[in-house]
Each structure stands twice: as structure tokens, then as C-alpha cells.
Design a protein that fits this description.
It is a single chain. This protein has about 250 residues and is an alpha+beta fold. The chain has a single domain, classed as Jelly Rolls, CATH 2.60.120.560. About 15% of the residues lie in helices and about 30% in strands. It contains 3 helices and 13 strands. Strands 1, 3, 4, 6, 9, 10, 11 and 13 form an 8-stranded antiparallel beta sheet that branches. The protein starts with a helix and ends in a 7-residue tail after the last strand.
């Protein structure tokens, strides 16, 4: 009896893991009903292009094992394949992305990206936009730079730190980033937990912006439409289950 029960439990476990593997880069019927749409099909680069213009980068990125991956290119920000962006802009939305880093990695998920603003490193850096930081906090030195941890994983880069007790999984394991923006309100989530929020029209945010490196850009911090970007910082990083749900305009949360 015990052996039969053990076999039954194992079969259920195996079936559950098989179902879990099958749903990567797909939408459930409920997600479709709720208006979610895949931004990555797990097989092709459809829907993405180089932030520098033209088609998808010929080097620096690869689609493999159901993930779209930054290959190791030496650590220079956008110095090889370069960043990739969606082929259209988004305004009010909920974005969900699974990400996995290699040891010491640095990357980011950017939104409200303005491709006309690419001022860093003589045009070789990332364009300007809000950044959900993707980082190995333990090994990458950027985690100790900035102010009060505002360059650690899940932070609004160089602006607002993620909560110190954020539920981050170890390097090499999948984490889920969630970004919600509607009107003037924004939120960053990590593995199902809200780790920061902001209101663009609040005195607190305006003060944070004034003290950040982005204060030199008059259009920064006003939200509006922009591209979604995955950053090539020269470190192996994996992305999958990239999906978005557009929201009605307004300030509701």
C-alpha cells in the first residue's frame, strides 16, 4: 500500500511539474480574458528590436530553452548587442517578467523609455527611462552605490530603493518582476510582494528626482508613453514569461 501511495504521489508531482513546464511563455484562459498579452513567445524575437534602430541585434542576445538571454559580452553597458525594446510604446499597463541572473550580473527592465535620449558613453549606453533594477546585490558593486540602496534589485534605479526585506531568490533561480503604472502612480513588485510605490506628482517624488542624476532631463519623471526595454549590460541574464496587460487611463490603483 505504501509503495502504491508513494508512486501515486510521485505521479502527481511529476504531472504538476510537467504542467508547470508547459505553461512557460503561455497565457492561461483567465489571463486572456483579463487582457494579458505575451511580449515573448519563447521561440522567436518577434515583437523586439534593437534600441539603436533596425532589426534585432545580430550578436549579444540569443533565444534558447524558452528564454531570451543576454550573452556575455564583457560588461560594457549596451556595448555589444545593445539593449532591445518593444516594437511599440505603452502608457498605462501591468507588466510581468521572469528573470534570472548569473553571478555578479547587472541588467534592468526599463519602461517609459525615450529612444531620443541616449546621452551616456557617447551614445553607447542605454536610453533614458525608468528602470526596474536587475542585479546580483551580493557581488555587483552597484548595489553599494547610489543612495540608501536605490541601485539594488527591484529598485527604481537611482531613485527609490526596494524594501530591504524584499523576497529575492538566489542567483541562478527565477524571480518574477511586476511593474504597474497607471496615471501618476507606479509600483514595483518582486515575487508577489510590493517592494516600492511612487506618485509622480507628489512633492516626495519631485524631491527624489531633483537629487538624482536624471534631473538634467526636463521630460524625465512625467510618465507618459514609452518603450519597454531589456538591458544588455554585458552579463548573462535570462528573461521569460514576458507579458503585459494594458490598463484604462486614470489614477486608480
Amino acid at each position: 500500500m505504501k509503495s502504491a501511495l508513494a508512486a501515486f504521489v510521485f505521479s502527481l508531482s511529476f504531472a504538476a511539474s510537467t504542467v508547470s513546464a508547459q505553461v512557460v511563455n503561455t497565457l492561461t484562459p483567465q489571463e486572456k480574458t483579463d487582457g494579458w498579452r505575451l511580449l515573448f513567445d519563447g521561440k522567436t524575437t518577434d515583437g523586439w528590436r534593437s534600441a539603436r534602430g533596425g532589426g534585432f541585434p545580430a550578436v549579444g542576445w540569443v533565444v534558447k530553452d524558452g528564454a531570451i538571454t543576454v550573452t556575455e559580452t564583457g560588461g560594457e553597458e549596451a556595448g555589444n548587442g545593445g539593449d532591445i525594446v518593444t516594437t511599440r510604446t505603452y502608457e498605462n499597463f501591468e507588466l510581468s517578467v521572469d528573470f534570472k541572473t548569473s553571478p555578479g550580473a547587472n541588467s534592468g527592465i526599463m519602461y517609459f523609455v525615450d529612444l531620443d535620449l541616449m546621452p551616456w558613453h557617447n551614445g553607447h549606453g542605454s536610453p533614458i527611462g525608468f528602470e526596474y533594477q536587475v542585479l546580483d546585490d551580493a557581488l555587483h558593486p552597484d548595489a553599494k552605490r547610489g543612495k540608501n540602496g536605490d541601485r539594488t534589485v527591484a529598485s527604481l534605479y537611482d531613485m527609490i530603493p526596494a524594501a530591504a526585506d524584499k523576497p529575492i531568490k538566489p542567483v541562478g533561480e527565477w524571480n518574477t518582476a511586476r511593474i504597474v503604472v497607471r496615471g501618476q502612480h507606479g509600483e514595483h513588485w518582486l515575487n508577489g510582494v510590493k517592494v516600492l510605490e511612487y506618485d509622480l506628482d507628489s512633492p516626495e517624488f519631485k524631491q527624489i528626482l531633483a537629487e538624482s542624476k536624471y534631473h538634467v532631463f526636463p521630460s524625465y519623471g512625467h510618465g507618459g508613453k514609452g518603450y519597454i526595454l531589456l538591458q544588455d549590460h554585458g552579463f548573462p541574464v535570462w528573461f521569460r514569461n514576458i507579458k503585459i496587460r494594458e490598463l484604462a487611463a486614470g489614477t486608480g490603483r
